[in-house]
Amino acid sequence: MQAEAIPAQARRSAGVSLSIGTGTRLLLNFSGMRENLSSELIGLYPYEFLIFKMPLIPGIRNKLLPGEGVTVRYMQGGSIFGFSTCILNHVLKPASLVFVEYPEFVEQLDLRQHRRVDCLLPGKVHCRHGEYRCVLADLSPGGGKVVLDVKASDPVKSLGVGDMLILRLGLFAGKGDVSVSCLLKNVAQDASRLQLGVQFRDMGEDECCQIRDYLEQVSTAV
User: Fold this and answer.
1) What is the C-alpha to C-alpha distance for residues 2 and 181, in angstroms, rounded to an integer?
2) How confident is the model at residue 115 (pLDDT cuts 50, 70, 90)?
3) pLDDT in tens, 22-74
4) Is 84 exposed, middle or buried (0-12, 13-18, 19+ CB in 10 A)?
5) Which residues contact 113 (CB under 8 A, 6 or more apart)?
6) Cis peptide before 58 (omega within 30 of 0)
7) Contacts of range 212-218, beta carbons closer than 8 Å, 24 or more positions apart
8) Close Cβ partners of 120 (under 8 Å, ≥ 6 residues apart)
9) What does DSSP say about strands 130-140 and 178-189: parallel, antiparallel, or unpaired?
10) Mean pLDDT of all residues in the chain?
């Protein structure tokens, strides 16, 4: 049984505290310009202003007058965020920087089929190389992120996109483990850790209900 997908949709939030880190890549669209310009976030003062790296193209300073409008977009955590703001000032020394007003509203477009919640659920993953202890780092009705601690020579590091896994989790105390077949969608690894993005496949009604109940409980508690 496949979990029902949630179509991409936009949400608008007012008076937000931006969850965005320095170095985040940005797309800027200045009033009167057709093309988007690449930039990055240098810093911010919450609810006051943000500082961007100035795009270095001919004539850009004519677009950086105080009060000129600019639309900002960036991607984070499987969503596209965007907001409109106004230029406050720009400086050329010690670096070429643009200061803009802190946004009053931010729009968010979710690209993932299912919204995910962060978690730290211990479990086990069974693959063609054997069974391994793991932690589920995030969960949605359709999949999640599985994290394993591995050694440099561990054969599980040869897993690739398209492999099938069995994931066993204990979602609720006093209930049996949930076992779910998973399709491996993406892999990230370093010397000691393996991160597996998995998509649930062929779930039974009981497994679907337990995962849905867990997500509802966690979402209510947040």
Assistant:
1) 11
2) low
3) 889 999 998 878 888 999 999 999 899 999 998 888 888 888 899 999 999 99
4) middle
5) 5, 6, 142
6) no
7) 212/141, 213/171, 213/172, 214/139, 214/171, 214/172, 215/117, 215/139, 215/140, 215/141, 218/117, 218/119
8) 135, 136, 137
9) unpaired
10) 84
